[in-house]
Amino acid sequence: MVTDGSTDKVVVRLDGVSKEYGDSVALDGVSLDIRAGEAVAVMGPSGCGKSTVLNMVAGLDRPTAGSVVVHGEDLGTLNETGLALYRRRRVGMIFQFFNLIDDLPALDNVALAAQLTGSPTAQARRRALELLDELGIADRRNAYPAALSGGERQRVGVARALMNRPAVLLADEPTGALDSRSGEQVMDLLIDLNQIGQTLLIVTHDPRLATRCASRLIEFADGRVARESALERTA
User: Which domain range does residue 31 map to?
Assistant: First the structure.
């Protein structure tokens, strides 16, 4: 775990964030801090606002009111180009359905994340191979997504998300499209990442994922934080 005092640092801060879509209120004055090294799970029924929170932190959506600050950067001050750079450099995203590029092998799917920020191809491929090796799938580096199992595809997705050493790793239902065995492997991977200091924000419907991988649970209802609780990880 992180032991250098950086756990006191706020990596993500939402301050009075509201989001309206016409007459619909997705978020209603949400304030939330996530500190360095935390693993935070967000749960709640469909339409409660949890995915909107993830989109706010990812810079994929803008609040109607309030502010979102990530790693000291106020997202409200960034234009669309600035937000695109922010997404590449500050956050990593793990998706339920992987979002891999079908006509690129695993290694190039991962390396592309660094190449888009200007890293030389050879350097990006070296780091991609290191990550695939750490995640136990270096031997699948030349396989295309269609030839990978669900668990392997999600590991490629995790490697891609980690390429640019993100301040926070965002996971949107990361086990939702996996069988139980692959899901368990991805949970173990998220725990391992958090134990070496990676900050995590996980949106999920799965209480087992939350209790296994997170140290804090935030429950949403009707666009608001309904309850927060500390979690003791289960085996």
Answer: 1-88+199-235
